[in-house]
Amino acid sequence: MPDAELQNNPQTRIADEGVTVSVATQSTVTAERESELLASVPTGLLINGEWRPAASGKTFDVEDPSTGKVLLSIADAGAEDGMAALDAAAAAQDSWAKVSPRERGEILRRAFELVTERAEDFALLMTLEMGKPLAEARGEVTYGAEFLRWFSEEAVRAFGRYSVSPEGKTRLLVQKKPVGPSLLITPWNFPLAMATRKVAPAVAAGCTMVLKSANLTPLTSQLFAAVMQEAGLPAGVLNVIPTSTAGATTGPLIKDARLRKLSFTGSTEVGRRLLTDASENVLRTSMELGGNAPFVVFEDADIDAAVAGAMIAKLRNMGEACTAANRFIVHESVADEFAEKFAAKMADMTTARGTEPESKVGPLIDAKSRDKVHELVSDALASGATAVVGGAPVDGPGYFYQPTILKGVTEGTRILSEEIFGPVAPIITFDTEDEAIRLANNTEYGLVAYVFTRDLNRGIRMGERLETGMLGLNAGVVSNAAAPFGGVKQSGLGREGGLEGIEEYLYTQYIGIADPYAG
Ligand code: NAP
Question: What is the SS3 assignment for 64?
Fold first, then answer.
């Protein structure tokens, strides 16, 4: 089925990050099913292979953003627990690095199979703690599990090389070695995939880890860690420290010389601060930060395909994605047609708790996020934009916001320079290709761009001129475990996934060997 048709088919949705899932069989979830699942989630800290309470005995609550009700309370790690987790990771590093690449790969393969077997549990848990509709959560399970499979295959391919030096005397042996104990910090928006995208390559490379999940959505990481244990990961290799005091708990680890790597996914603001902290010990860092993706529609684009792509690039994860299209830059000759067709689709998107069969758009993560989205919309409206559809929060419990399209947005409006992180699409128009490039590049971010055109040369030119780490050409989604995901400018450093993903957890060591023919 061609993409546009697929995306319009009511039996399918393009769920999170490029995975198509069927929603035909989506059933209503009972309260008993929710309780049973929550009861199976470990509530402790995972340190050296054991689930234990926080040293302080403290816990924190995890809420359902569609009701505001508490789902579960879990252990709240403090600095002492963070240090115990690093102790365990540092102690396990040498023996873990000696485990054969094949065995490390097979643990990942088993983890892939276990996550896949428990796909419904992972999907429901993400829907409960994060809010996304079940169909999308199922898509994230598929996408997240794929990192486990991909890196199970990459574990045995950390190749070095042997060569003769140019003058013919020395032999050059180059090998790849695990970086060492790594601190992994993940955001709340993709609770499973953001964890597997870091844990899988670290396991493949032979690094031990301390994982600090996001305090708004830590439950999925808890269940995932239990699955990693079941898959045979030795004690101490993966330690998990959910916490309500991120800075105080992880700060001492970043200053500790035993830590060798910091991999962070989150906002540019926090990433910048962590980079400063990491400079003290000159830590290896990977930074997957914020985005402000332009979505460019040329006059020669297939408008129906562009609208289908826009729906995915904007509404996936309720717009709470670093890859979410943030600015719709549309040629003035097709702007009305695009806005009209886009609005018809947006108006059709039902907001409801993600467990409900009719849910196409779940709640935003919390009241603060919903208020920020509304603030940006109100500012744009006050600056002369008009709402083609939506434009307001949804009444009732939970933090829902109406799918919204704004027309007549002008350059300089806040909504074009800040990450919206909600189901809101501002449209601005352009006349020439140069103007489209200038508008698209007019941001400090550089994660991804989307371009819709039937002219392949123009598409290639756009790839060459756009300052982004990724480009979707006639595609509303780019994420794929086999592709290098990451940004330029203030969207980050390093890549996750693809051949590049494992490199983030390896360092290169060169051994110079004296002339084997010398007496
Ligand atoms: P965030 O506020 O920056 O938080 C990200 C993570 O950092 C959370 O685990 C958070 O802990 C932790 N954190 C916050 N302050 C910290 C500190 N001082 N020291 C150590 N850790 C700290 O971001 P978010 O709101 O969770 O996620 C949304 C952002 O992530 C957006 O900007 C989005 O674009 C970006 N993102 C980027 C990518 C990518 O691949 N480029 C992917 C997904 C999301 P708490 O949860 O406890 O606050």
Answer: coil
Q: With 70 as the cut, is the pLDDT of residue 188 above it?
A: yes
Q: Which of 184, 188, 275 to mutate to test the pocket of ligand 1 (most atoms within 8 A of CB)?
A: 188
Active site residues: 288, 322
**How would you classify the pairing of strands 182-185 and 261-265?**
parallel
**pTM of whole model > 0.90?**
yes
Nearest-5° Cα angle at 377, 373 to 378: 115
Banded model confidence at residue 19, pLDDT cuts 50, 70, 90 = very low
Could you tell me the fold of the domain covering 293-489? Aldehyde Dehydrogenase; Chain A, domain 2 (3.40.309)
Q: What are phi and psi of 369, to 5 degrees?
A: -65, -45
- Residue 519's pLDDT is 76
How many angstroms separate the Cα of 465 from the Cα of each of 206, 440, 450?
38, 10, 13
> How far apart are the CA of 185 and the centre of ligand 1, in A?
8
Secondary structure (3-state) at 162: strand
Average pLDDT over residues 463-486: 98
Q: What residue ranges line ligand 1, CB within 6 angstroms? A: 185-189, 194, 212, 214-216, 246-247, 250, 265-267, 270, 273-274, 288-291, 322, 419, 447, 487, 492
Read off the pLDDT of residues 314-347 as tens digits, 9 standing for 90 and up.
999 999 999 999 999 999 999 999 999 999 999 9
What does the chain come to in residues? 519
Task: Write the single-letter amino acid at 233.
Answer: L
327 by Cβ neighbours in 10 Å (0-12 / 13-18 / 19+) ranks as: buried
Identity at 17, one-letter amino acid code: E
Residue 11 has pLDDT above 60, yes or no: no
518 CA distance to ligand 1 centroid (A)? 56
425-447: per-residue pLDDT in tens? 999 999 999 999 999 999 999 99
C-alpha dihedral, 429 to 432 to 435 to 437, nearest 10°: 100
Q: How far is the CA of 358 from the centre of ligand 1 (A)?
A: 30
* Domain 46-60+70-190+202-289+502-508: CATH architecture, name and number where available: 3-Layer(aba) Sandwich (3.40)
Helices (H) and strands (E) in the chain, counts: 17, 22
Q: What are the structural domain ranges in the chain?
A: 46-60+70-190+202-289+502-508, 293-489
For residue 127, the surrounding DSSP H or E stretch is helix 119-130
* Residues in a beta bridge with 407: 386
Burial class (CB in 10 A: 0-12, 13-18, 19+), 28: exposed
Q: Quick one: pLDDT band at residue 33, thresholds 50, 70, 90? A: very high
The Cα-based distances of 205 to 89, 93, 102, 233 in angstroms read 14, 11, 11, 14
